[in-house]
Design goal:
This protein folds into two domains: about 90 residues, NAD(P)-binding Rossmann-like Domain (Rossmann fold); about 150 residues, Dihydrodipicolinate Reductase, domain 2. It is built from eleven helices and 15 strands. An eight-stranded mixed β-sheet has the order 8-9-10-7-11-12-13-14, with helices on one face. A seven-stranded mixed β-sheet has the order 3-2-1-4-5-6-15, with helices on both faces.
């Protein structure tokens, strides 16, 4: 594990909304002169600089190779999704040793495989699934230590009317399950330990994505049954249910943890710890883990291991 010295700089690549969330947390954990920000466009870099009162270098990582090589051991990458693998590749070539890459790391498997081949045994690449670090998830993990899980179920319904109007590329929208819905499936895999077998159904199509409805079931590596559903043409939201020998735990929304005791129909909500500031849920804890602990993070190797499950659930044929 790399220790952070007061003189070390952390590189933040990106100047968009997610980069701003990372910067807010970095500014709390580090001194401002330890944060190096690189953007691509001059317009975006200037706006970020003015908002945060910090120098931002434009031109992307390719135009700042010397600066990175001389200063940077670790980096957070929060660029547009289609730029993620190439930026990560450049950073590996510049000998950056620890990288937190925005989810899902790439929209195709080949990029992940290439990055794993490029990294050496002392290099770390993590995929930024911040929902692993929700207070509700931390409390749930504590509860599950003392109970026997009987089944899982989850939902990853997306609001298609909102997605279609987002200022995102058609390529990203056509892979929206990977780009966004994997937040939910990653949580399931994180808590369950992985999938042994899975049976998937797909229905419907739209101008921007195929399929539009999903259902399926299977068993985990521990032999625990699970099921899932999502209807992007209908009504719903992300959610996760875990039934144990004592309770049913309900995370819907994922930020809250409710439970139904065995033998009861009444739902009760569990009190969570106080949030740290007003930061995007889970980001503070994730960045702190990246900088100091390295626990609970999704490695790029883990992401590649999960990829066949993602492709089966998504129904994508062009993988």
């Amino acid at each position: 594990m790399l220790e952070i010295s007061p003189k070390e700089k952390i590189l933040l690549v990106g100047t968009g909304n997610m980069a701003q969330e990372y910067f807010n947390v970095l500014e709390l954990l580090l001194s401002k002169d330890q944060i190096l920000v690189i953007g691509r466009s001059l317009k975006g870099s200037t706006a970020f600089s003015e908002t945060n009162n910090i120098e931002v270098f434009s031109g992307g990582v390719e135009s700042n190779e010397k600066l990175i090589k001389s200063n940077i051991k670790r980096s957070i990458v929060a660029t547009d999704i289609e730029e993620l693998p190439l930026v990560c590749e450049h950073l590996l070539n510049y000998k950056v040793q620890s990288i937190l890459l925005e989810k899902p790391g790439s929209l195709n498997r080949n990029d992940l495989e290439r990055l794993i081949k490029l990294k050496n045994k002392n290099t770390e690449i993590f995929i930024a699934y911040n929902r692993r670090f929700y207070r509700s998830i931390n409390l749930l993990k504590d509860k599950l230590q003392y109970e026997k899980v009987q089944s899982f179920s989850f939902e990853f319904t997306e609001f298609s009317n909102q997605v279609v109007s987002l200022k995102k590329s058609l390529v990203e929208k056509q892979r929206w399950f990977l780009a966004n819905s994997t937040h939910v499936v990653d949580l399931f895999l994180f808590l369950s330990g992985g999938v042994k077998d899975i049976h998937c159904n797909h229905f419907g199509t739209s101008s921007w994505h195929e399929p539009m409805s999903f259902s399926g079931s299977g068993s985990t590596l521990k032999g625990i049954p699970f099921s899932y559903i999502a209807n992007w043409n209908g009504v719903g939201r992300w959610g996760l249910n875990i039934t144990t020998d004592k309770n049913r735990y309900v995370l819907k929304p994922l930020e809250k943890l409710q439970f139904i005791p065995k033998g009861s129909f009444q739902t009760q909500e569990l009190d969570l710890s106080e949030p740290i500031g007003t930061y995007k849920e889970g980001v503070y804890e994730m960045v702190r883990s990246f900088l100091y602990k390295k626990s609970g993070l999704c490695t790029i190797e883990e992401q590649l291991k999960h990829w066949p499950v993602y492709i089966k659930i998504s129904g994508y044929s062009n993988e």
